[in-house]
From TrEMBL:
Ranges where the Methyltransferase type domain occurs: 74-115
Keyword Cell inner membrane: no
Keyword list, A-Z: Methyltransferase, Transferase
One protein family per Pfam: Methyltransf_11
Gene Ontology annotations of biological process type: methylation
Protein name per Swiss-Prot or TrEMBL: Methyltransferase domain-containing protein
Coiled-coil spans in chain: none
Alphabetical list of InterPro entries matching this protein: Methyltransf_11
Any GO molecular function: methyltransferase activity
Length: 213
């Protein structure tokens, strides 16, 4: 296939994706107008489309209860949310978008509300590169085509995730990022079986932060 054709196909798929994102945002906004009650206890999970009881899900999936492109912020009014949870989501945004999204979380959270996050620990994969003899490749890296006999692919695997990952965290960066977004009482936390998925536990770090009361 010629280069021009490849480029045209790519451009069309980018335009299609952006139109899809706009449609998600319009639908999410409309649903908030119709169904959202600021006075209720509102718990939100970001970047999840599988129903979890007690949470309003916001995701770039038109079928999510509240479809929305999180790059555009959050569809909710100021000071309307009691709790926000995001599991393996922040790493899907670039640095500036992470700050925008966290700023949006703070805007929509009620004073004193908590944000709880879980992200992959990129440090595990860097340690794996530095100390391959101590790295359990099968436990941390699963990919159909990457060759894990080449240790740089531990890093390629997590840092790119086939183009889905855009920004990496270790514990220090996660806490610093939450603090610089204006949250207080920022702290690491343990795995919480009532909240976090067991399947992600071995590769994850967890933190909570509060909006000043
Ligand atoms: C790795 S999945 C995590 C799903 C779920 N939280 C979990 O831990 O199983 C990342 C999620 O982020 C969502 N996501 C990625 N970019 C997004 C965006 N711009 N706006 C809204 N959701 C997005 C994806 O649709 C996907 O559901």
């Amino acid at each position: 296939m010629s280069l021009i054709r490849i480029r045209m196909r790519r451009s069309i798929s980018v335009i299609y994706h952006e139109l899809y994102c706009i449609a998600c945002c319009l639908l999410g906004k409309a649903k908030v107008r119709l169904f959202f009650d600021k006075e209720r206890t509102n718990r939100v999970e970001l970047g999840a489309d599988v129903k979890r009881s007690g949470f309003m899900l916001v995701d770039l999936n038109i079928k999510a209860p509240y479809p929305y492109d999180l790059r555009a912020g959050l569809p909710f009014p100021d000071a309307s949310i009691d709790f926000i949870y995001a599991e393996h989501v922040l790493e899907h945004f670039d640095h500036d978008q992470v700050h925008l999204l966290l700023g949006e979380c703070r805007r929509v959270m009620k004073p004193g509300a908590t944000l709880s996050v879980c992200v992959p620990d990129a440090g595990i994969f860097l340690d794996g590169y530095a100390h391959p003899d101590q790295f359990d490749v099968g436990r941390f890296c699963q990919h159909p085509t990457l060759d894990f006999s080449v240790r740089i692919n531990y890093v390629n695997y997590m840092f790119y995730m086939d183009g889905f990952h855009r920004y990496m965290f270790d514990e220090e960066n996660l806490l610093r990022t939450l603090e610089s977004a204006g949250f207080v009482d920022v702290a690491s936390r343990e795995f919480d079986p009532d909240l976090d998925q067991q399947v992600r536990r071995h590769e994850s770090i967890y933190a909570t932060a509060r909006k000043r009361g």
